């Protein structure tokens, strides 16, 4: 079965405190849904090299055992509560993608 991945890129972070409130809710929701964080945030020493139209802001990569599990975790009640904590006008590029077996 192919794995599923959440890929999030944050072009700009205008309210780091509200983002921290989201992180406190999202982390446990992701873990409860079976997700494993595969990336280290730049704010915690993670390195990013951006090419072409890329940005060096926060990039998050989370792995799930299946694509269906990744979708279910996003749609879960716990993660939906975390989304409410994101700041108004917040911008991110979020995708759920299916891996290759």
From TrEMBL:
Residues 3-100 form the DUF1330 domain. InterPro entries: Dimeric_a/b-barrel (IPR011008), DUF1330 (IPR010753). SUPFAM superfamilies: Dimeric alpha+beta barrel. Pfam families: DUF1330. It comes from the Bacteria. This is DUF1330 domain-containing protein.
């Amino acid at each position: 079965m192919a794995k599923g991945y959440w890929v999030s890129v944050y072009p700009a972070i205008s309210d780091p405190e509200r983002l921290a409130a989201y992180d406190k809710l999202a982390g446990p929701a992701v873990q409860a849904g079976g997700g494993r964080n595969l990336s280290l945030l730049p704010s915690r020493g993670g390195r990013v090299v951006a090419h072409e139209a890329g940005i060096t802001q926060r990039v998050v990569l989370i792995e799930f055992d299946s694509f269906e599990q990744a979708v279910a975790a996003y749609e879960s009640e716990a993660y939906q509560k975390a989304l409410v904590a994101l700041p108004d006008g917040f911008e991110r590029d979020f995708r759920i993608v299916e891996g290759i077996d």
